[in-house]
Amino acid sequence: MTGRGAKTIRVDTLARVEGEGSLYIKLVGERVADVKLKIYEPPRLFEAFLRGRHFSEAADITARICGICPVAYQMSAVHAIERALGVRIDPAVRLLRRLFYCGEWIESHALHVYMLHAPDFLGYPDVIAMAADHRAVVERALRLKKVGNRIVQLLGGREIHPISAAVGGFYRTPTRQQFNELLVDLEWALEASLETVRWTAALEFPKFEQDYEFVALRHPDEYPFNEGRLVSNRGLDIDAAEYEDHFVELHVKHSNALHSVVRGRGSYLVGPLARFNLNFDKLPDVARKVALEVGLRPPVKNLFRSIVVRAVELVFACAEALRIIGEYEPPAAPRAETPNRTGAGQAITEAPRGILYHRYALDEKGLIVTARIVPPTSQNLRQIEEDLREYAAQLVAWPLDEATWKCEQAVRSYDPCISCATHSLKVVLEREEADKD
Amino acid sequence: MSSKAKHKPKIGVFKFASCDGCQLSLLDAEDELLGVVGAVDIAYFPEATRTMLKGPYDIGFVEGSVTTHQDAQRIQEVRRQCRTLITIGACATAGGIQALRNWKDVDEFVRVVYATPQFISTLKLSTPIAEHVPVDFELRGCPINKYHLIELITATLAGRKPNIPTYSVCIDCKRKANVCIAVARGIACLGPVTQAGCGALCPSYDRGCYGCYGPMETPNTGSLTKQFRILGQGDDQIVRAFRGFNAWSWQFRKASEECEHK
Question: CB-side exposure of B107: number of CA atoms within 13 Å?
């Protein structure tokens, strides 16, 4: 290597992602020599300190892995433990859990679409600068996000680390009257989400399509939240209990997060694109119609378009919340009895960023013997690095600052949550001219 | 954003080991966000913006606990750069849930989670920011209350003392006219020793307080431990109750260790 004209795309602190990481991409001539998505966020070792805690504490403790998607952790935890205990939940509780997830998806997707991702498309450093020119859009974003938070608040007491989710159900369930107070806001939110789809679809997307293995839950009757088989477009079709037979986590030196791969195949993609592509037929009419209206049909293979897919999922979540509230009858008891017993159970649920796997083994006192948690971001990490390897190759002729921003945008398309991945990001592009001979 | 001409106070938000929830609280203040950011100059807040301006900062908010050698050094630099340093949340003020490692063998913990433990560099203890540098104000909670955060920003800008309660959750239960779940239903509740701030949420949802706002100003943990025993709680349960999100706060730590070493 001569090092002459060496170039590195380097972002020491990736902005507008949850948690801390950096990106490093080294270009040698026309070739991408190295891509490292470094996670320097410190490890927090949840699986270790869950051991010896009672199962009733798992939902509260694992929620603290992520302040952005605590509901997801609570849902995977309670479903896995219910499976370990052999507990059946009331159908009304089942619906309430779907509603709980609707709230989190609305809050999280509105945050990502407008506040974390859209500024890239419009050329602003952040949503605050964007608000100076697009005040009405930002106000719509904040109001939409608030509707999601209100649902989580009503069911869970507060939006971050809610306190009501329990093994067997909820500590307390709201009354019909309390839900009815949400209806006007939700009807507005549904319209606002439709506007969001049209608004995001009009953005400009880099041309970049990849042949992904999409992995998501699939349920016979509904767009997935808490139940279903785990399927992919390459023939995967398994129960949560078989997850560890098909997926393996690798520990790479440059990262405090583990990389997950499909055994025998490699990287895969989870999250809104995967869900949309595998479950398009399960979306309610209103969501499917608007997707087709803006020309979005499966398979969507351009990760930059995930912003439109998130908007379509906003439509789904609002429509689903309205449906659930419309037919809500409070359960006979807020939660089922959950006596201590030995057992093991796994669950996969659809966090806003993709599938979240939990496994617990319990002893006769109901204490956790082992726990395993695989968050969506660690499942996407390898795919993000592979995408950057391909995508950076398209940018070799670009000015370095623009190429760097584009690579950041690509990473943000995944809505990575580094706090989750390190229970355990940083961007660097290095460019070197190839040897002349 | 960086309209320096107006001399708006420069704000930095710094993250250590944490879940991001406390800094998200600012973005969750949907009705107040645009007003707050209009009054300050957000100079460093990576979760919200690509713009990252160098210090010094007028106010620094720190989320998260110190768990690595690098972070132990970084907090010194953050302190030097911030005229006023405010810690937000249970991780920053008490070491957080990750402080549960402080009673265990951390090397074994790392082996449980990572296949190649030699790649991981971590300290034996998860410690609050105030164990490393002087802190001007500690805002409690797991997560913090977003209205406290806005009050704190407003008070700091106005140069007055923030109005944030230090009394117990019990006071809020009385205000909400909750029937005491510990007295009436025999549910173990940390409310009597926990600082208010959440709005007495758990008792309002028919469950015992689990102490996410940490110890109140003068908690009588010994008396509560006795009461827990009367309610039929075993020592192991009492240890776990105090070893939650504020386990390393000295008051809760003392309470759990007294029970463990009895």
Answer: 1
